[in-house]
Amino acid sequence: MRPSRRAYIAVCQRLLALGVVVVALVPAAGVVSLDVVGVAPTKPVVPRQPVESTVQAPAQGRSPGAVEGVDEQLRDYAVETTHESEVPTAPVDPVVREVSLTPKAQTAAEQTDQAEQTDPADQTDQAEQTDQADQAGPAERSGQTEVLSDPQTVTGLGAVGVTWDGSTEVADDAIAIQVRTETDGAWSEWSDLTYHEEHGPDPDSAEAAQARPGTDGTVVGDVDQVQVKVEMADGELPADLTLAVVDPGTATATEEEAPEIDTADLATPPTGAQAEAEPPVVEAPGPDVAGEPVADEAIALQATTVTPKPVIYSRAQWGADESKRDGKPSYFEVHGGFVHHTVNANDYKREDVPAIIRSIYAYHTQSRGWSDIGYNFLVDRFGRIWEGRYGGVDRAVVGAHTLNYNSYSFAMSAIGNFELVQPPTEMIQAYAALMAWKLSLHGVSAASTIQRIGSKNFQAINGHRDAASTACPGRYLYAQIPEIRRLAALAQADWSGRDPQPNLVGSPAPDLVARRISDSQAVILPIEPTATGVSLGTPVETGLSLKRADLVLSVGDWDRDGFNDIATRSKKGAVRIRRGDGAGGFGGPPIRLGTSFKGFSMLAAVGDMTGDGYPDLMGQPAGSGVHIYAGGGTAGLAAAYKAYGKMTGSQLVGVGRLDGDGAPDVMVRNGNVLTAWAGNGPGGLTGALPISVDVTRYDWVVGVGDVGLTGSPDLVVRKAGKGRLSLLQWGPTGFAAPVKMAGGMKAYDLVG
User: Fold this and answer.
1) How far apart are CA 646 and CA 652, in angstroms?
2) Are 377 and 594 in contact (CB under 8 A)?
3) Cα–Cα distance for residue pair 3/268, rounded to 1 Å
4) Angle at 488 between CA 485 and CA 490, to 5 degrees
5) How does residue 41 score in pLDDT terms, banded at 50, 70 and 90?
6) pLDDT-based confidence at 582, cuts 50/70/90?
7) Which residues are CB-neighbours of 631 under 8 A, at least 6 positions away?
8) Quick one: which of 94, 74, 4 has its CA closest to 489?
9) Distance CA 148, CA 139 (A)
10) Handedness of CA 415, 416, 418, 421 (dihedral sign)
11) What DSSP designation does 49 have?
């Protein structure tokens, strides 16, 4: 038995603390399929060992009423967490067999070679035929408008999908793809294979460059043969139309195990895939940190105020072959969650689920060309939560699930087709438990009705169809999203966090904090978009003296209390977080980050570079390379590690996301040129980007976030000697020409 037995014991102990009354379940001979639409769903019944009924007082510090309410509302999910499941004990290698249905598109070079090998007379005939074809309608063209595949043999718990060359855009309603299966000589009726353009990685990401459009992968089950047909409503079939038949493989050995990932234990050093997802820690000159905080302790600080803490079956427990995924995960931010469904069969058994997930994984990586399985989490009809995309369940891993919104969200997909059946209560409650925990970890209230996800505002919990023209997650699961929101909010009832405010004074746009020369006081300068441009609002007095400071940085919500904060560095090299109150003040004791930051040639706040939900610092100690100093909330800083070699420059500017890989980027000022450098999440920096700005005339260059709410970062600059403040907004071709904001800024020296 693997160490996951420990997780089982921990779950049972936590279940007692939740005060759940568990009743014995009557064993049954098999699995009952989900009920059809229109009938109240019946819980699946499986053979299990009875669990003793126990009641215990609510955990210290929690409201008894709220805890009891959560216990009662999430009871079915809580019961499921006490059971073990049959899982593989080693990676299982799925096999994808691809069958070509149409020819591949020829490159220009291939067309030229073919023309050179053709007799001139034949070329003339060919040109005439092309002219005739161009004058004909789609139905009269020589190209195919429909195709029927040969029957293909299916092995194991088979899955299928259809993909094609992405050089031609195919609208959702322009193509019809159906599948049927044969078992013991009898063919089933035709059913649809779902295709939506909105399923996949964000279009500007590196992952999207390798992706192929296609249908969702669909599990067809233990059948003998499968056949698909494809029809175009208008035009020819796309080039390189390919049928993928997936054999998920068979585990050579299995064991009954509890979920391996217990989110209550994430403060302890992780093992296996979780350990590999951690950023490397190396010896480096840098700050002295009080105590011995580590990155996972910082995560635990926020998670301790959340109930319940879900348990999750790991990638290893569904038999993930890690060689199938491509490279390292990307990290960005979590502002909300999306509910999906996999559009698979609904009558699967408990022991089938690892194979189903392997089929989805293989189809996404080998046929769709994605870097990993698209979803961050999956949940089965029994209420079990499974780890999806690699990179750490507690981190802001960028998935490939909701086109245009992946970098700002996470997704859990329900295994099944909930356009056809009702989701069981265990599944709904599992969604609520996972959403409550994951959102709180990243500072988001499950009850929030306005969260900025990409270029639009959403609620904290959404269906896929809220972001795109799609039926996902099916009408019956979508109808349960209000209940998921209610339960998740109830689970966060005693949560101490609040939605982070966008700046230091609670208004929608970013702001600046500057030191006034006359009295060394910190003053907040709100940035206010206007009908014709942008301006500065009325300065806000903070009462904070910066007399001993030589650097001030806007760091975002460092302590995850819901309000943005700033960092100051003293002339002796001590860096402290000054905790904002959302109204322009900085009350409460500062958070000491260290006293060894003197002599840094560059130091900046760079956002959440490590993907753990906390802002980070990046800096270059004297004589060394660039390092990341991972934020740990009230714990201070985690150990520093090298992010890049030694760089030449006088200023490091945190600018947010410029390139589209999901990780924050930075800009470095070297003389009169400001150059962008690509961030790679926990990996640090990867190299310079082809983005630069002439800053010859400016003595201030400040990254201020998204002033115009366009989804892209902006810069504020001050003209040297003149004190005129301007905005440089990021656009499709780079930073635009400066837009004047205000004059009279010669009265300030430090700015952040």
Assistant:
1) 13
2) no
3) 14
4) 110
5) very low
6) confident
7) 298, 555, 558, 608, 610, 614, 615, 616, 617, 637, 638
8) 74
9) 17
10) negative
11) -
Q: Cα(320)–Cα(316) distance, rounded to whole angstroms?
A: 5
In angstroms, the Cα distances linking 420 to 132, 344, 454 are: 47, 11, 31
Nearest to 350 by CA among 387, 386, 393, 390: 386
- Averaged pLDDT for residues 715-737: 89
Question: In this structure, is the dihedral angle defined by the CA atoms of residues 68, 73, 76 and 80, taken in order, positive or negative?
Answer: negative
Tokens at residue 518, please?
Answer: 């006359």
H/E segment holding residue 463: strand 461-463
Cα gap 495→488, rounded to integer Å:
11
CA dihedral 422, 426, 428, 434 (to 10 degrees): -150
Kindly list the distances between the CA atom of residue 725 and the CA atoms of 509, 525, 542, 710, in Å, as whole numbers in the listed order. Answer: 16, 11, 21, 21
State how far the Cα of 651 lies from the Cα of 715, in Å rounded to an integer: 14
Q: What is the pTM of this model?
A: 0.63
Q: What is the DSSP string of 55-112?
A: --PPPTTS-HHHHHHHHHHTHHHHHHTT--EEEESS----EEEEEESSPPPPPHHHHH
Q: Which residue has the tokens 């429909």?
A: 146
Residue with tokens 């060919």: 126
- Helix-helix angle 4-18:64-73, to 10 degrees: 120
d(C-alpha 639, C-alpha 283), whole Å: 8
Token representation of residue 431: 């969604």
Residue 711 has a pLDDT of 61
Residue with the two structure tokens 């855009």: 169
Judge residue 590's burial from the number of C-beta atoms within 10 Å of its C-beta, 0-12 exposed, 13-18 middle, 19 or more buried: middle
Matching residue, tokens 């491509």: 326
Q: Tell me how far apart the alpha carbons of residues 307 and 440 are, in angstroms, rounded to a whole number.
A: 10
Reading the block at residue 288, the tokens are 């002295």
